[in-house]
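Sat 14:20. Reprocessing the chain from the morning session after the first attempt stalled halfway. Input below, unchanged.
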Amino acid sequence: MNTINVILNGKVVKAKENETILELASRNGYKIPTLCHDPRLKPFASCFVCVVEVKNMKGFQPSCSTIVTEGMEIDTENDNVKKSRKAALELILSNHYADCYGPCRQTCPANVDVQGYISLIEKGLYKEAVALIKESNPLPAICGRVCVRPCELACRRNLLNEKNAVGIDYLKRFAADIDLETDNHYKPEIAAPTGKKVAIIGGGPGGLSAAYWLAQKGHKVDIFEAMAHPGGWLRYGIPEYRLPNNIIEKEIATITELGVNIFTNKKLGENISYKEIKDKYDAIILTIGSQKGTLVGVDGEDAEGVLSGIDFLRNMEVTGKKPNFEGKKIIIVGGGNTAMDCCRTSIRCGSKDVTVVYRRTEAEMPANPIEIHESKIESVKYKFLTAPVKILKDENGKLKSMVCQQMKLGEPDASGRRRPIPIDNSEFEINADFILAAIGQKTDVNFINDINSNSTDGELKLNKWGDIDVNKETLETGISNVFAAGDSVTGPATIIEAIAQAKIAANSCHSFLIGKKPEAPKTEFISKKENFRVQNKDEYDGLFAHQEREEMPVLDADNRLNFNEVELGYKSEDIAKKEADRCLECGCGAVLTCDLKKFATEYNAKQNHFSGNFKNYSVDFSHPFIEIDRNKCILCGRCIRICNEIVGASALGFVNRGFDTIVAPSMGKSLLDTKCENCGLCISTCPTGAISENKIFKIAPIKTNKFNTICNYCSIGCSLEISNISDFVYEVNGNKGLINKFGIICSKGKFGYHYINDSSRLLSPLLKVNNEWKEITWEEAFKTIAKNIKSSNPDENTFMAGARLTNEELYYIQKIARAAVKTNNIGSFHYLGNSDNYFKNNAISYPLEGIKYAKSIWILGSQMAKTNAVASYGIQKMRSSEEIPVTLFVENNDSSMNHKADKVIRLKSKYAFIKALNYYIISNNIEHKCYISDHATGFDEYKSNLLKENYEKLISETGLEKDEFEKLANEYRYTLDLILVYSESDTSANCAKEISNLIMLCGKKDDFVSDVMVLKTKNNSQGLFDNGINPNIAPGGKNLKNSIEILEKVWKTNNLNRNSNADLKELLENKKVKNLFIFGEDPIGTAINKNEATNLFNPNSFTVVADYFMTETAKLASLVLPMAFPFETGGTFTNTQRVIQNFNAEMKPKTGKTNIEVLNGIAAEFGLNTFSSNNEIFNEFISILAEKDNSMPTFEYTNSDNLNKLFLFGADNLGLRFYNQTQDLAK
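Finished this time. Tokens:
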């Protein structure tokens, strides 16, 4: 390829001819943002985010479509370019009425991924849910009980008629409690030791959290706690009926197990000095909290009996004794959660007269509404719009009463709540024995002098509120290696706010320890619907099914006069999953992959920079697999173009004009009413999540594990990328593989994964006893199989193996049959009655990648888009981009391919058409004589038999006029690089044979490639022949009788059965089989004629079925063996072009054994040597292929058509399941 010289960002570089600026920049390491570009498609240049500056060209140029020229000077990085990109992004964002994250996460101070962990709980992945929570909050069991729940206030479920948010904390607690009780609870990975030591002052939620994150970084962390127990306010401020001490201890243990040490009764400035710590530690984090109580703030507050609520609660925990309030009248001043703790604790201390005095109404109370509700159940009384004015004492200085004043609400203050205003002449008096003031807390930094007198690197300062002065973004103090977090920085706040600050402090501390300057957390662009308007009930009315909240079980009010935990937690997984199901999934499922979000963050774009009109569309869930949210659509056109240029369905288009333009099916149709093929390629190309998978479970926009494997549906051999969370498969995408180089896959590969998550999967062997299934051990299963085989004659046993199995499994099954059982009764229901005829039809098949070199393409058959869709996409791409003409030959009107062809020719019989072509070529003496002479045998006999046929009758049977037919015949014979494509699924075995004859007649075949592309049905249909799954075929596709000697040598045996039964169908129909073994096939479930299929089974035989599920065939079995999935066993598949692709075992089999281990168990019962790995099996297979088969292909005459398939989907239950799934979801 010729090159040209280009100046790129001031440097001379070599560019390729016809290369775009985007491609050139990418090759040279410059990242240009683009939203409308997909390398699989022609450039479109609609988003103008990829613009660059080109000297002597007016304005900015879209890099995705601008071709480089000699001497071109390009600037991709200057300020003007960046400003233009930012403006383009902001224009797009101004009409992007969508949420990146749900309001629950946006309002959580710690940014906990609420939607993510609720989705994991819905899937029963509790450990994984806890792991996700602990990325932002190390104390989920604690917060699940006592968090103030700003997330629930923001929950949009509140906008529905149910008036109750999702029980977010209830769910968090449920998952956390389960995890704490398991022997294998979640424990994060710990980095290698750094040698750095960190001292944390204060063992409350902030200190514990900072220690948790720093320990994960490999630092040595010690916590110094002033009290006798760690926990801070968690232990000394929250009563046990809300937060039991044993929960605190268990959760703290998950932190100390990371290597964190906690030293109690260590108070900075008293019994441990700053100098001592400074000398031993590399960094310090101050997390002392605000635990100094305040009183009422009115005259007389020094009366005996007036207490700080904080001191009241703390002293109970310190002393372990509760005061005796029997017969006492208690007043609580305040409306927060501390006030709730004081009033409810007072009830538990014996008082029957407890009143909360609050200066606003109940609606303005900051306390958790649930706490208010529970206090009322416990007989707490309230006086709202009431404020203390003065406290009266008796002559001994003891509390007598409190003078109060009635209030009214004015305008909102800084907190957003309406300001209380005194009502003149409204004072009244309330008698009381004790007043507990719960109106505020202060920070007590009593160690500041100790620090500053010993500091040599700056000064610790306090702000005007008496809190520690810090850099608000990094939480650095005036001393370089001292950081602070929590209430000591913010003043009295919440537990979750302290945890949030602890993470910032920990990250800054870590940066300092590794020699980097602490930086503020990067600002992440977040799209919010609230940036456009306040959310209201009208927008959500009627969109979601009514589902009341699963309320928290609690102790009866009569059983609460103690400190036992009141809230009992959800009692079952069903309840928790029902509550999880209430989540509205407000956050975007594509948030981790969204290019718009990524570039908006990179260019600091603002969503509300351009204000004006915006569109609000309803989300379209009507398609079973594809969800369309036009609010996220940026009109890049990628989905339209991939559907047209690659799929050929043209199911989507631009509808309307100007600001009203949308992407949709034309004429207002549903996507279901178009030629949509459910491939999901529109999803794969969408840069924003406007088109996404319509998942049957709750979306979890979280990081997943990923691994690559090979699709186990059709024979193309596409590489898939599996995204999984533990053993739950979350989604599947195309991987750029050996065959599907651009990551293109079809509907089965994209959406046919739900069977993997199906809870009805077989996990243990099941033996039928008295018509009931009994679970048995693997060892019992192996012995049962051996017993039945040994009690029969060898040829009374038959082994059937499915085309979805790996080469290694297929080889091993036939080896057990031949070497252990001594029978050649080996086959597959997939090819039952026809296997020999499909044997060598793709000995040399045209490669999918080679379609670009074709001059013309003939497709023989109507359903390729359904059976082998990716092949049809490859053809359509070349038809679209290279204008290669496609002719489609069909036998019926129900074709999924008509719209993908330039010409559609209707035939009565494909078989007659091919046979007539052969007749025409031979009778006109235009066959390729040189090729036939050198490369084939049997021509003379074939010619003799064929020319006995009636040519006119053959023409008639094609359904074509003679002139039209002969024109096609000449076109085929004389057109170079005319590729014939057919699928076995709708082509008879004899038709396949005649196609092979046709290819040889025309010389369209050599030692490396032929001009025919054969599309087999299943992922390893070819493997059946290659591994000897046929009575007459040995491994390597060789004649069995000619291979006995080498098999006996390799298998180290000398008594293999030399006889074979060529017709297994007849054997089964005649009930000659005593023991039938079926591996990976469901002939009953997939049968075209169930009666005919059922007749193949002997009700008196011992039948073993190995499969994933209790299929219809398995229900008839005597013994059912669970099978491992391919990615649980590993191995190889051979695709339709005879390309062998390896894939690894990526997950442990839920069945407890890989399929090879199961076969090992059977083989061992007969003394057969077992295999330790797939590689060992493959190597043994290769050793059998020592001799090359030099035989030439042979012309084989057929006298009639034989499209007599017995089973759909290659007799594979997975194909049936996906078909049924598609039908069910479409209803």
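Residues 1-77 form a domain with the Ubiquitin-like (UB roll) fold (CATH 3.10.20.740).
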